[in-house]
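Memo to structure team: turn this sequence into structure tokens by end of day. - J.P.
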Amino acid sequence: MGFAVIPGTFADETCNSPFTTALITGQEQYLHVWTLGMPGMGDESDKLVTISVDPKSDKYGKVINTLSVGGRGEAHHTGFTDDRRYLWAGRLDDNKIFIFDLIDPANPKLIKTITDFADRTGYVGPHTFYALPGRMLIQALSNTKTHDGQTGLAVYSNAGELVSLHPMPVTDGGDGYGYDIGINPAKNVLLTSSFTGWNNYMMDLGKMVKDPEAMKRFGNTMAIWDLKSMKAEKILNVPGAPLEIRWSLKPEHNWAYTATALTSKLWLIKQDEKGEWIAKETGTIGDPSKIPLPVDISITADAKGLWVNTFLDGTTRFYDISEPEHPKEVFSKKMGNQVNMVSQSYDGKRVYFTTSLIANWDKKGAENDQWLKAYDWDGKELVEKFTVDFNELKLGRAHHMKFSSKTNAAELGTNQSFPTRQ
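Reply from structure team:
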């Protein structure tokens, strides 16, 4: 398998694949929120919620579309195809994958549902959807036999057909866990991180943290892969469940950042003076003894700043990473009882936050905030622009966000074929 490097192509949201085209470098118009259904709330179904985020629109800050997909299966992450026309969205419990057509981004259409992911791959929990040229790379979290954390990667065509499987490494220090994907095409490097299996992520958080055996079942490694051959080449020791991966988007840089959920640390993945890939701890996030639980992170396009959310204390932090080996926390804000995902526009002027982590890990009762909040960011302060209260609107648990825009709709790919829905 080989992948061509596409010079100068960068995503707008800073966590997207470098192979994504049809970029939004100015004002995004719509925000799509992959939302978990909640028992007793609205239609109780998982759904894609579309919100107008263009200040020029008379519907600015309002929900303009909801598309329920039926049932609740632990809706989690989404990812665009490389042509940016289609949005793939997965569920961690029932393993269904939904493909939405965004040619009219104000009115997404569900055009295909993949229902045999677990049967075809042997993997459970399709988590990360990462665009490759003409392909979708999916990182799973678990497996069908034991539901523990040993898992793998699956490559699909953009039309939704399984192409190949790549188990996570279990030799030379590999622990078999998976979580996020990050690619540096200039270095032909695929970087993966690690989390935990179905047995843990579907368990109540309070119960799990009191179970010593369950707490042993988290990943402590990251893996460096040869992208073209899809072979793991080196295992990096990164204790405490390294989650999100963000490569610097500067062409002259060859480093990435991650944060560890259980140990509350920042880690830098880089090449040393000999060209060897290494992992280096660069600092702590909040007070690790209080287990703030770092979750989503977002790197600025100029690679000088990093947003880090900590779920349990409901706080977002901004780090100056102008010197990547010496990050400095320069801003923090209590967002609510809980906060999980963060997405920023490519120009870094707008930042969006949502609340839900995993249904069984979200806080209970009155502390179960479920919202999307939009802010302007001037480098010093977050200025709130609007809030969409998902509880009040009976939408469910607000999770992963993706941007879209009509202004780039003409550039979206049109060569895909989805003749039938499964």
